[in-house]
């Protein structure tokens, strides 16, 4: 089959592309590389024209505040039009979400509409913020979520504009129109599966693909200091629950001193990020979800002990009695307790790291994941 993948978040579509190619399919990835992360794409439709110059960026922001329109969208649309002849005639077109190319709804729909009319079967993935997830979090969700910091302190609203935008009329209309044209929407992990429980077009969850061949088991010798790594993307600072980790790390520094070494890295391109945590034993990823994102999965594949979502919905979805990682909760004392247990019982780090690798191999291997997508495409 010829498969067109639209949009990229955290390497999601790159990893799926690899698996599909191993099965013999022709795959083309369209996107902007996910901003500073710089993931590879086959057809580049992003723009950093305004961000490259301080004054231009100020003009863009001012114009957006005055008119509600993003000047950069016109550049993105022009780049799309230049390459649109390369984006037709595919058997499958798959969107990573309903705003996969990052434009305001009217311009985004022009591109979506072209892709729908010039290709065969369409599919939508649920692997990040989108209308049903934003609606679920604000209206139905029980327990903690990425919105917890905002619900506790509404002054943080500006930190959640990306999530809340999907509740606006234009974004909701685009989502509804796109889903009506798609054969199915495919949740990539348990948080999104929960949000889509009442959606008739929701397919069975297909876990995110991880390219195991590119991620060797890399368990470092267990000796002091215990190496702890945390990566920060300022755009997701509160949604990932980073403040809970920061407070826990401050307590650990006082408690253990030179027995621990803590590395914190911010806003790194993907290749640099992967290299920066190789020496670590423990990786702190996120504390406000019920499943793992890409950074967590790739670290687990390398045998790191990861703190991320691993609550009851995750255990049920994967039919597990015990998680192969630490279920990170938004509770500083709990996080300190779990980290202390690992520091004081370092043999557990090696054991849990091996279990993590085995879990990712079993449930997230890119080729096996691609087979599940392939089966859905031809059903």
TrEMBL record:
Read off the Gene3D superfamilies from this record.
Glycogen Phosphorylase B
Domain named Spore protein YkvP/CgeB glycosyl transferase-like: residues: 255-373
Name a GO molecular-function annotation.
transferase activity
- Per the UniProt record, one Pfam family is Glyco_trans_1_2
Q: Give UniProt keywords alphabetically.
A: Transferase
The name of this protein is Glycosyl transferase
- Organism lineage string: Bacteria, Pseudomonadati, Bacteroidota, Flavobacteriia, Flavobacteriales
